[in-house]
Design brief:
This protein is α/β, with parallel strands linked by helices. It has seven helices and seven strands; from the N terminus they run E-H-H-E-H-E-H-E-H-H-E-E-E-H. It has one domain: SGNH hydrolase (Rossmann fold, 3-Layer(aba) Sandwich), CATH 3.40.50. The radius of gyration is 16 Å and the shape is globular.
Length: about 210
């Protein structure tokens, strides 16, 4: 199961806002034909925050996590890819704080279990963590219409990979940094180009193979 936000849902960086065909989880799944992909992604989803300005508690990743895990059990693995929406100024973000919130999600996954088809099986699925990519310089451009909402986000995003790597080492979770593989749109520093989805889906598939998944 991929548990993520708009970039995993397939929100395009330009053109009509219809869900993108060829989004990265689909690319990954085509390259790993032995897996059955479950896409559990929602635009605007945070790690642990209710977002009064966008869907409220429905976008709280921690609040919905148990429902998702139990709905889709049995699960061999969860790919956790959240944290971008935590960068919004209203959440007073820090790289360490976002990593700590991701740690809460990992601990909840391990506490709930659900790897086998037995309803109350306590065995947890494997967890793989993707560190959110750095936002582009467009996020700091006062001409960008959402600049105030994301004020300071890019500076924090530059340190997320390091914070997530430290979290992964502490909790024994493999971590992949998304930054080398993705590029956002010229007018949208948050969402990715179609080429980035293709490239990133391939990178995740290669990474999982190296984890012997």
């Amino acid at each position: 199961m991929v548990y993520g936000d708009s970039n995993s849902w397939g929100y395009p960086c330009d053109g009509p806002k219809a869900r993108m065909e060829g989004r990265w989880p689909q690319v990954m799944a085509r390259l790993l034909p032995d897996i059955a992909l479950i896409e559990e992604n929602l635009p605007g989803r945070t790690t642990v925050h209710d977002d009064a300005e966008h869907l409220g508690e429905a976008n709280n990743g921690l609040r919905f996590l148990e429902t998702a895990l139990r709905s889709h059990a049995p699960l061999d693995a969860v790919i956790l890819f959240l944290g971008v929406n935590d960068l919004k100024a209203r959440f007073a973000p820090s790289a360490e704080g976002i990593a700590a919130n991701l740690g809460k999600l990992i601990e909840r996954i391990r506490a709930i279990g659900g790897k086998s088809a037995v309803w109350d099986d306590p065995t947890p699925p494997a967890v793989f963590l993707i560190a959110p990519p750095c936002l582009s310089e467009r996020a700091d451009d006062p001409e960008w219409e959402r600049c105030a909402e994301w004020r300071g986000a890019r500076a924090v995003s530059l340190h997320l990979a390091e914070a997530c790597a430290a979290l992964g080492a502490r909790l024994d979770v493999p971590v992949l940094d998304a930054s080398p593989f993705v590029e956002s749109g010229a007018d949208d520093p948050i969402h990715w180009t179609a080429d980035s989805h293709t490239r990133f889906g391939g990178a995740v598939a290669d990474w999982l193979k190296k984890q012997h998944f």
